[in-house]
Specification:
Layout (H helix, E strand, L loop, with lengths): L8 E4 L6 H31 L6 H18 L2 H9 L4 E3 H34 L4 H4 L2 H27 L8 E2 L6 H5 L7 H34 L4 H37 L7 H24 L2 H17 L1
Parallel strand pairs: 1-3
Antiparallel strand pairs: 1-2
């Protein structure tokens, strides 16, 4: 009990001890953050301006782009400040806000990707009923529900974390206030928190994944029934961008989970630089790749961007 205290700030260890790597990484992260803002901002703009993109798929895509901007903005600016200055601390309140926003955005993205998979399933397997099933009265509440689930789930998790008693150790071995890294600093049994997180993960991460798997299994069956190779290619192209994003998103989560499990088996509590870079890949590279994937693999998006650029030049 003598070691228990009221913490007012945390120290973010990040890449302390690797000054050259910090400088290099800060430049790379800054460039990627600018690409994230430009790429996702462009997708949001064209999905609003171009009337041809006023469809459920692009409505979901606009939400995903806005989500990626919010998700990266919760952590990248503070990480850059930590890299480029001597200030590597964050207040307890600031850390709680970062935990809430990061967890909310992550949960929302999982649910939203599940909704997008259902949209692709209806488009491929029930094309004649698509406009009826995926009407505005359906896809707007689906997107709103994804945000509500993310916010509520994160609020519950964050409340349980901030109520934990913390000891004098305030060093978070991470770039930002990641929820598990913060929980490990508590001077109490966190098994209850871990159980709540397990239930939430099962509901809001694995359930959307099962929905995605089932949707694409049915889509593949439907594609195989198409006799012409050109028809199969055309149908698959409508799903390939979303499927690529899902593979990158869940693939990185699975890789991080397997890495952490292997470290537990080896009884290693230290998070090395490689693990932190993998975490940054999940938090930065994936949001940067999303607009590139949808732009390069989608003819409608390419045409909308060209139209927007032509209109800008013409206005000048």
């Amino acid at each position: 009990m003598g070691n228990q205290t009221i913490l007012v700030e945390f120290f973010l260890k990040g890449l302390s001890g690797y000054p050259r790597l910090e400088l290099l990484f800060s430049v790379l992260v800054l460039i990627m953050y600018v690409v994230i803002l430009l790429g996702n901002g462009t997708l949001i703009l064209i999905s609003v301006v171009d009337s041809h993109l006023h469809t459920p798929m692009y409505f979901f895509l606009g939400n995903l782009s806005f989500l990626d901007i919010c998700y990266t903005t919760t952590s990248i600016p503070s990480t850059l400040v930590s890299f480029l200055s001597e200030r590597k601390t964050i207040s307890f309140t600031g850390c709680a806000v970062q935990v809430f926003l990061g967890f909310a955005m992550g949960t929302t993205e999982c649910v939203l990707l599940g909704m997008m998979a259902f949209d692709r399933y209806v488009a491929v397997c029930n094309p004649l009923r698509y406009s009826t099933i995926m009407s505005k009265d359906s896809y707007v509440p689906m997107a709103a529900g994804s945000w509500i689930i993310g916010v509520v789930n994160s609020a519950v998790q964050t409340v349980f974390v901030v109520q934990l008693p913390f000891c004098r150790n305030n060093v978070i071995n991470h770039f930002s206030c990641e929820i598990l890294a913060v929980m490990k600093l508590a001077c109490a049994d966190i098994s209850g928190n871990e159980f709540i997180m397990l239930v939430a993960t099962t509901l809001f991460t694995l359930t959307p994944l099962f929905l995605i798997i089932i949707s694409y299994a049915l889509i593949i069956v439907s594609i195989l029934k198409i006799h012409s190779s050109e028809g199969r290619s055309k149908v698959f192209s409508t799903c390939s961008a979303h499927l690529t994003v899902v593979i990158i998103f869940y693939g990185t989560i699975l890789f991080m989970y397997m890495k952490s499990k292997s470290k537990e088996i080896l009884n290693s509590d230290d998070v090395d630089a490689t693990d932190k870079l993998i975490s940054m890949f999940y938090g930065v590279v994936t949001p940067m790749m999303n607009p590139l994937i949808y732009s390069l693999r989608n003819k409608d998006v390419k045409e909308a961007v060209k139209y927007l650029l032509r209109r800008k030049v013409f206005d000048k």
